[in-house]
């Protein structure tokens, strides 16, 4: 049985269709005071998979997920698998300043306490997040899906990571495509001047593909696009797994000279052209 919560209903339907599994109808809404209401409209037994990304509005989507997991347990589910394509609160994995809440660990503990037996997720922002769970965690990578999509668009791309932290993702995509890969690095020219540049490759006349796991405000991508344009890249395509895209992020990115933005449907957005449904279905 597959259950799709509010943030991932279309994705859940795609997964259920690929698996030829039962998509259980649910009712989710808010009371006038803003509190959540959920109801499972079907018989619950055996193993149940709940699919719910916990992006914006993070608190509502997380609370709905916790309610659903616990409710399924109460209704008789023998095993509950939580599929969280985008893991909200995953970027606060440690205490950066004294007194801060380590929200990623707290969310992990809440999911376990609700009764989840297993977590399946896609491209966690920090690899250490799986260590916060005592239940099995399967982290899937959407980079092969992105590489396959790019292969149908560009004949001879070069893959660029917008910073060193994204280099692993860029290398995964370039390895599948069999093309060159590089990353943006900061070089200190003087005590007062720092320049960001493509580390090794000459991108002039090349179709550049910028790859990252998350695009939030778009600032990192805007910076990378400006540098690629200065270095005369022929085109710039931006790809990410999780299109958080806060406020006017897309406008800023396109205004910086980016030709196309492509993302997966771990989060719903107007650039979510690649579905992770086959990836999740394959894991289930």
Word description of this protein:
With 284 residues, the chain is α/β, with parallel strands linked by helices. Helix content is 30%, strand content 27%. The chain is built from 8 helices and 14 strands. It has helices at 9-19, 58-74, 103-114, 143-151, 167-177, 219-230, 249-255, 277-283; strands at 2-4, 26-30, 36-40, 47-51, 79-84, 118-122, 137-140, 157-161, 181-188, 194-198, 207-215, 235-243, 260-264, 272-274. The chain has a 7-stranded mixed sheet, sandwiched between helices. Strands 1-4-5-6-7 form a 5-stranded parallel sheet, sandwiched between helices. Helix 2 (58-74) packs parallel to helix 3 (103-114) and helix 4 crosses helix 5. The radius of gyration is 20 Å and the shape is elongated. The N and C termini lie close together (11 Å). The model has no long low-confidence stretch (mean pLDDT 91).
Topology readout:
Layout: E1 2-4, H1 9-19, E2 26-30, E3 36-40, E4 47-51, H2 58-74, E5 79-84, H3 103-114, E6 118-122, E7 137-140, H4 143-151, E8 157-161, H5 167-177, E9 181-188, E10 194-198, E11 207-215, H6 219-230, E12 235-243, H7 249-255, E13 260-264, E14 272-274, H8 277-283
Parallel strand pairs: 1-4, 4-5, 5-6, 6-7, 8-9, 8-11, 11-12, 12-13, 13-14
Antiparallel strand pairs: 2-3, 9-10
């Amino acid at each position: 049985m597959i259950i799709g919560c509010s943030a991932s209903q279309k994705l859940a339907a795609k997964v259920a269709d690929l698996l030829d599994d039962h998509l259980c109808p649910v009712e989710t809404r808010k009371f006038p005071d803003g509190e959540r209401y959920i109801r499972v409209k079907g018989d619950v037994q055996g193993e149940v998979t709940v699919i719910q990304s916990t992006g914006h509005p993070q608190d509502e989507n997380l609370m709905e997920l916790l309610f659903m997991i616990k409710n399924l347990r109460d209704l008789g589910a023998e095993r509950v698998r939580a599929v969280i394509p985008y893991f909200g609160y995953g970027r606060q994995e440690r205490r950066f300043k004294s007194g801060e809440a380590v929200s990623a660990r707290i969310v992990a503990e809440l999911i376990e306490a609700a009764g989840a037996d297993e977590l399946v997720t896609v491209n966690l922002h920090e690899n250490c997040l799986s260590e916060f769970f005592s239940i099995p965690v399967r982290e899937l990578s959407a980079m092969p899906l992105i590489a396959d999509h790019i292969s149908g668009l560009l004949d001879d791309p070069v893959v660029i990571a917008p910073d060193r932290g994204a280099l692993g993702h860029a290398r995964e995509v370039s390895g599948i495509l069999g093309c060159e890969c590089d990353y943006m690095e900061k070089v200190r020219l003087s005590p007062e001047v720092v320049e960001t540049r493509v580390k090794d490759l000459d991108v002039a006349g090349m179709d550049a593909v910028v790859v990252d796991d998350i695009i939030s405000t778009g600032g990192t991508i805007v910076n990378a696009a400006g540098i690629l344009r200065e270095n005369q890249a022929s085109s710039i395509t931006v790809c990410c797994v999780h299109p958080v895209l806060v406020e006017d992020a897309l406008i800023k990115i396109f205004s910086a000279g980016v030709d196309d933005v492509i993302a997966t449907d771990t989060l719903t957005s107007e650039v979510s052209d690649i579905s992770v449904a086959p990836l999740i279905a394959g894991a289930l």
